[in-house]
Specification:
Layout (H helix, E strand, L loop, with lengths): L2 E6 L12 E2 L4 E2 L1 H19 L3 E5 L10 H15 L4 E5 L16 H5 L5 E4 L3 E7 L2 E8 L4 H6 L11 H17 L6 E7 L1 E2 L7 H4 L4 E2 L1 H4 L6 E5 L5 E4 L4 E3 L16 E7 L3 E7 L5 E7 L6 H9 L8 E9 L19 E9 L13 H10 L8 H16 L1
Parallel strand pairs: 1-4, 4-5, 5-6, 8-9, 9-12, 10-11, 12-14, 17-18, 18-19
Antiparallel strand pairs: 1-15, 2-3, 7-8, 13-14, 15-16
């Protein structure tokens, strides 16, 4: 029988965005969403009869969770512990202390002494016996800039570039690989960027821990479990390099992204599947209400045709100058089934400027670009000749 693992990450317990304050319980209602998805993971763990659960960082949204948030995580860990599975929790950038010796918000769980609970705050290998064989987990918490300096990869005052991070992560990966017993299945579990991640602007990665997939996708690891990116995706085939994604949506950039976790089977080959959690829906809508005598009623008619129950909705309204002001306070009571409504209004001038659309060939576009550059314009003839030669070579 294969060893079964639940791989999850980026729980962000305590993220309050788009929630409401519940005065009776003194909590933000988004905490209920997070607990609902976590309890679904416990159900998945029971149904799949997992041997281990790996939680790869960003458990909390803030570095100082309150008691209610700690209770939610404790309930999740308690549910997993009842399955008899080993539980590995790796610190992400929301938990790992940047100052040496400072306590992590995860240490309170370790003091509860749940059976088979393993807290990984520094890179290390933990090997356990599961009911289906020996499993080694090589855990890498969110790497810190000070570690680059301490290890001689970076001088004080310098900013790390991707190549430095890759070399540093590679060194740790080598060390962790050496600690894997030859008779065990093994996974690498890290909270970090991998360079071929999809859908992320390169500027967001600037200066942050990043490596090539092949830096961690290497023997003896049978599977690479990643956290930090909220979009579930697989980046490498052998061994599989997989981001589980987050369990709940955090903003409208994730409106169309499925949320869930991964079940991985380590047998003769490695197999995995994505299972969705009941994440709250985010719906992004736009309406042009220009010239409407009753914009609230017009918006209500259009919204009535949408399935909005329990959704977080962002509505962008376009009007022209002189239109009746769109007051969202009059719209919200018409849709009590909505969980949250945010309205923004864009006002356009009454005067509409006509404009023509022109298409350019690559050479025409270059020519116009050079004409607008005082630096390049003196060399236009030579630059255009070089461009024409390059275009001809490409066509050949």
């Amino acid at each position: 029988m294969p060893i079964k693992i639940l791989h999850t990450a980026d729980l962000h317990i305590g993220d309050k965005r788009y929630g409401r304050f519940d005065p009776e319980r003194s909590i933000n209602t988004r905490l209920d969403d997070q607990l609902r998805s976590l309890l679904r993971l416990v159900e998945i763990a029971r149904d799949e009869q997992i041997d281990a659960a790996v939680v790869v960082g960003d458990i909390y949204h803030g570095r100082s969770p309150n008691a209610a948030e700690e209770d939610v995580f404790a309930e999740f860990i308690s549910g997993l512990a009842e399955t008899g599975a080993h539980i590995f929790v790796i610190e992400g950038n929301h938990e790992r202390a940047t100052i040496p010796g400072k306590a992590s918000p995860l240490t309170h769980i370790a003091t509860l002494r749940f059976p088979n609970f393993h807290h990984i705050s520094e890179p290390k290998v933990i090997t356990v016996e599961t009911k289906h064989g020996k499993l080694a987990v090589a855990g890498m918490p969110w790497p810190l800039r000070r570690e680059l300096i301490e290890d001689g990869f970076l001088a004080k005052g310098e900013s790390p570039i991707p190549e430095i991070w890759d070399a540093f992560i590679g060194k740790i990966s080598d060390r962790l690989a050496e600690g894997i017993p030859s008779d065990s299945k093994a996974i690498f579990a890290g909270h970090l960027w991998v360079s071929n991640v999809m859908g992320i602007a390169a500027k967001k990665m600037r200066g942050e821990p990043i490596c090539r997939p092949e830096t961690v996708a290497r023997p003896p690891f049978d599977y690479v479990a990643l956290g930090h990116i909220h979009k579930h995706q697989a980046l490498w085939d052998d061994p599989p390099v997989v981001y589980s994604g987050s369990i709940e949506r955090t903003d409208f950039s994730e409106a169309d992204i499925p949320k869930g976790a991964v079940i991985t089977e380590l047998g003769e080959t490695t197999r995995w599947k994505f299972i969705r959690t009941p994440a709250r829906r985010f719906i992004d809508l736009e309406m042009n209400l220009s010239g409407m005598s009753d914009p609230i009623e017009a918006a209500a008619v259009k919204l009535a045709n949408r399935e909005l129950e329990g959704a977080i909705v962002r509505l962008t309204v376009t009007q022209v100058k002189g239109d009746r002001t769109f007051d969202a306070r009059h719209l919200r009571p018409k849709f009590p089934e909505l969980y949250y409504l945010r309205v923004s209004r864009i006002e356009l001038s009454e005067e509409r400027t006509e404009f023509a659309i022109r298409t350019y060939s690559p050479l025409e576009a270059l020519s116009e670009y050079i004409d607008r550059s005082e630096t390049l314009k003196p060399d236009k003839e030579e630059l255009m000749e070089l461009a024409k030669s390059l275009a001809e070579e490409i066509c050949e």
